[in-house]
Q: What sequence folds into this?
């Protein structure tokens, strides 16, 4: 068995693409417009051939997608948790769970999906300003 992808519905395609591509650094691997069904599928990954996220955008939908308790979060490994969080904050994102332990942080996508960021390899030594940061929101 091979893991292929996780699908998430998105309300604002441009905001979501900005978040996943420009802020998180994923790459678009495939895009399919389905005019008959009035939707677009966009597949994103950290590298070609890696597991993917399928963004599903239903054209003209005004439905407010809610998250069920059975969906927890997406997780990405990063080279430096502190640098990644600094960059995301500079882009205006809230770090919902700061990386106080040098290992893990959480942010949310424009559609409210929790994104876990995990330090690659050994956890980094705790450092300021992350040590003293309180949670900025729920994750």
A:
């Amino acid at each position: 068995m091979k893991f292929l992808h996780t699908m998430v519905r998105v309300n604002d395609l441009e905001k979501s693409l900005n978040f996943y591509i420009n802020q998180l650094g994923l790459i678009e691997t495939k895009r399919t417009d389905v005019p008959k069904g009035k939707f677009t599928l966009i597949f994103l990954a950290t590298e070609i051939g890696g597991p993917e996220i399928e963004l599903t955008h239903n054209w003209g939908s005004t439905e407010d997608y809610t998250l069920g308790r059975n969906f927890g979060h997406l997780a990405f490994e990063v080279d430096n948790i502190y640098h990644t969080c600094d960059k995301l904050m500079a882009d205006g994102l809230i770090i919902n769970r700061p990386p106080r332990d040098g290992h893990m942080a959480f942010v949310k996508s424009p559609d409210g999906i929790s994104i876990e960021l995990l330090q690659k390899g050994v956890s980094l030594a705790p450092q300021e300003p992350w040590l003293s940061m309180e949670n900025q929101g729920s994750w």
Notes: The beta strands are 5-9, 27-34, 39-45, 52-58, 74-78, 104-108, 114-119.
